[in-house]
């Protein structure tokens, strides 16, 4: 088997989604930390591998793949012992893809749109509109979960890893009200039962939440 290397940092939700997938598939990997605040992702070497300069970045024996959703799909397709985490059936796959694109566009981006200006330009005043986008993300997630155990029914998929890593980080900008969103709260508790979840996801999520605690005023 080829050597897998994941570039990332623990506080990053998309990085944690890839770590959850690697652990679920029981794949050996090397983890290389990239310090974004020291601009390590803007070095010539990193830009050659990922001109979009984002983490996570996967190096599979010289094949470079970035964007967490693309990485998770690739890992299951290439190395999964079965297709449970990312079904091959076109309809089931389309439903999982919908949740993945939802994470990429409507759940993670509202968080990134608040955190990046703070991390790189110290912007702490956040327009209410940006916060509303986070709330919309929570609302949709609650709705999608319905009466299901996981985001795509009774079986856990990579959509749960991607959306779960983001959802558990959103309290950095807007507290998750368990009374308003009971299904999200129950789903996160369900994910927490994975033996590697605390180590791979919640530790980084807590660190991320701490980093941004009391940093914002909403205008
Ligand atoms: N859609 C991308 C988002 C990745 C992303 O925004 N990563 C952040 C860290 S959480 C990053 O690398 N920021 C540095 C930059 O964009 O220059 C994914 O899912 O991988």
UniProtKB/TrEMBL annotation:
A Pfam family hit: GST_C
Domain GST C-terminal: 89-216
CDD domains per the UniProt record, alphabetical: GST_C_Delta_Epsilon, GST_N_Delta_Epsilon
Any one GO molecular function term: glutathione transferase activity
Residue ranges of every copy of the GST N-terminal domain listed in the record: 2-83
InterPro entries according to UniProt: Glutathione-S-Trfase_C-like, Glutathione-S-Trfase_C_sf, Glutathione_S-Trfase, Glutathione_S-Trfase_N, GST_C, Thioredoxin-like_sf
Summary of subunit composition and partner proteins: Homodimer.
Alphabetized PANTHER family for the sequence: FI01423P-RELATED (PTHR43969:SF4), GLUTATHIONE S TRANSFERASE D10, ISOFORM A-RELATED (PTHR43969)
Protein name according to UniProt: Glutathione S-transferase 1-like
